[in-house]
Amino acid sequence: MNGFADRGLDEGAFGEKNGGFRENIRTFDAFPKTKPTYTRRTSTGGYTTLLLITISLFLSFSEFLRWYRGHESHLFSVEKGVSHQLQINLDIVVPMLCHDLHVNVQDASGDRILAGDLLTKDPTNWGQWVDASGTHRLADERHVKEEEEDTHVGHVLGEVGGRKRKKFKRTPGIGWGSGAGRSCRIFGSLEGNKVQGDFHITARGHGYMEMGDHLDHDAFNFSHIINELSFGPLYPSLLNPLDRTYATTDSHFYKFQYYLSVVPTIYTRSPSPPPPTAHKPHDTPLPPDYSTSNTIITNQYAATSQSHAVNERTIPGIFFKFDIEPILLTVREERMSFLWLIVRVVNVVSGVLVGGGWCYQLAVWGKEVVRGRGRSGGRGEGMLNGRVFHGDGEDEEE
């Protein structure tokens, strides 16, 4: 037909080739290629590419740091289970003789604990504590910032996670002199019922009806330095609202009152930390000092102070009223999976390259438009409209 066969030619060679599956699948190619002969490289494009690569690397590194540091989530829930005991840790200095001070704890259940028999009383010098570095009044801004650091999981676990329990520091020597040993350091830990209670320090012969001498009013001085006041296991490295604070007064009859709201708290990196209390009466709860390298069970509290001078009919002293909140705060540090990081990096890099490519193309297009207008001299008419433009600026009709 058409003489192809007479000349030894194959008519099928001039039609579409049928190369099988590999040739047919090319119709689905979403990434068509451009021959290098139809592309042109410029220095502007090179600078733009380097800029986009730099931006992509910076954002990718930021995403890696964000993934590596993780993020914290705060979960509030009703504290389940049955809890019984609460440990109270106290370290306070009062400028009065030790045998003139009485320390007691009384809770809502009616139990009274003679804390003075359970805590340690050491004679000391007021000047050894009030001039110590870091001691300040309540609600100091620097103190608040330092306390904020102790609310992050990484810092808490780094300070106390899985380490051996620390004890209170030893009382420094009182030395010699007329004023030596005129102050008293009261410190130690005691167990109480996990209910609302009142912890107070009063003068001998004042407060509870007890046998003993009535202390002279001129000996009253309830100025104090709180080195440690915490609930639960003792972690001296963690800063609480009343730690390293002091309050002074010149009045003999003065009542310092602190109101504390205690919140059970779990700091953890574990996705499912164990509960701090037993869920059933026959279950065995975790020990109060439970801690691992990934989980810390402790208590936080918020403090407010309302102190004022009182008359001689009112008992002066230092009073801590604490209430146990029926909620459990779980502060968890989480890190997403490595696949999540890969997806984030791919999204960032592709977004930068695609967005940068569009901006570059728009810039090139705008540059060409500006240059095109400059070449035309602002005239849009040519030979097609029947007008001839002469160099002297005159037009004539043809």
Overview of the molecule:
This protein has 398 residues and is an alpha+beta fold. The chain has helices at residues 21-24, 43-69, 115-118, 127-130, 141-149, 153-160, 338-376, and strands spanning 71-78, 85-94, 101-107, 112-113, 120-124, 136-137, 183-193, 197-203, 224-231, 245-247, 254-268, 295-305, 308-309, 317-324, 327-334, 387-389, 395-397. It has seven helices and 17 strands. Strand 16 and strand 17 (395-397) form a beta hairpin. Mean pLDDT is 77; it is low at 278-283 and 393-398.
Briefly, what is this?
This protein is 24% helix and 28% strand. The chain has seven helices and 17 strands.
Task: Quickly list its features.
single chain, 398 residues, alpha+beta, disordered C terminus
Shape: elongated
Note poorly predicted spans. Answer: 278-283, 393-398
Please trace the helix and strand order, writing H or E for each element. HHEEEEHEHEHHEEEEEEEEEHEE
Mean pLDDT: 77
Strand content: 25-35%
Tally of DSSP helical segments: 7
Number of strands: 17
Class by alpha and beta content: alpha+beta
- Write down the Rg: 40 Å
Amount of helix: 10-25%
Give the distance, in angstroms, between the N- and C-terminal Cα atoms: 56 Å
Most strands sheet: 9 strands, mixed
Helix and strand topology:
Layout: H1 21-24, H2 43-69, E1 71-78, E2 85-94, E3 101-107, E4 112-113, H3 115-118, E5 120-124, H4 127-130, E6 136-137, H5 141-149, H6 153-160, E7 183-193, E8 197-203, E9 224-231, E10 245-247, E11 254-268, E12 295-305, E13 308-309, E14 317-324, E15 327-334, H7 338-376, E16 387-389, E17 395-397
Parallel strand pairs: 6-10, 11-14, 11-15
Antiparallel strand pairs: 1-15, 2-7, 2-9, 3-4, 3-8, 5-7, 8-14, 9-10, 11-12, 11-13, 16-17
Helix pairs in contact: 2-7
